[in-house]
Amino acid sequence: MIRHPHFSTTWALKSHISFYETIANYRHAYVIGPFDEVIEDYGAVIERVNAKLSTRFSPLDHTEDNVGEIFARIESLNRAKGGGLVEEQIARPSAAREELKSRVMDELEARRPGGPIAKGEAIHSDLTVRQTGERG
């Protein structure tokens, strides 16, 4: 909803639920990396991928320099695609996205009782608990 503000909340929720209901059937073939872990300790995600899928990817050494290099690469790719840098659309954390996320969350909270929000939260909980053994 942040990257594509023209999508309605209802459409975004239905799409989110449909996607995660579909991938739930393929748990054996992927590893979930919760957003906070991906941006704070991506090496741990890579280690789980290696353990689960018998791969040998090099885990990221999560230093400030390495993360800065990754963000610079993301920005470069984003510019190459569209010619500019739109903070609301770039695939990395930013203050602009946090502000928009807060507004979107307020809108979603207003719809919380039952319905698609509850269903989406249940799917998220099921997938993350089965993958990490923790709720979140």
Can you walk through the features of this model?
This protein has 136 residues and is an all-alpha fold. The protein has one domain. It is 62% helix and 0% strand. The chain contains 6 helices and no strands. Helix 1 runs parallel beside helix 6. The radius of gyration is 17 Å and the shape is globular.
The biggest beta sheet is recorded as: none
Query: What is the radius of gyration computed over CA atoms, rounded to a whole number of angstroms?
Result: 17 Å
- Put simply, the count of helices is 6
Distance between the termini: 21 Å
Task: Specify the structural class.
Answer: mainly alpha
How much of the residues is beta strand, in percent? under 5%
Mean pLDDT: 81
Number of domains: 1
Instruction: Tell me roughly what share of residues is in helical segments.
Output: 55-70%
Task: Report the oligomer.
Answer: single chain
β-strand number = 0
Which consecutive residue ranges, at least 5 long each, have pLDDT under 50?
none
Morphology call: globular
Write down the secondary-structure element order. HHHHHH
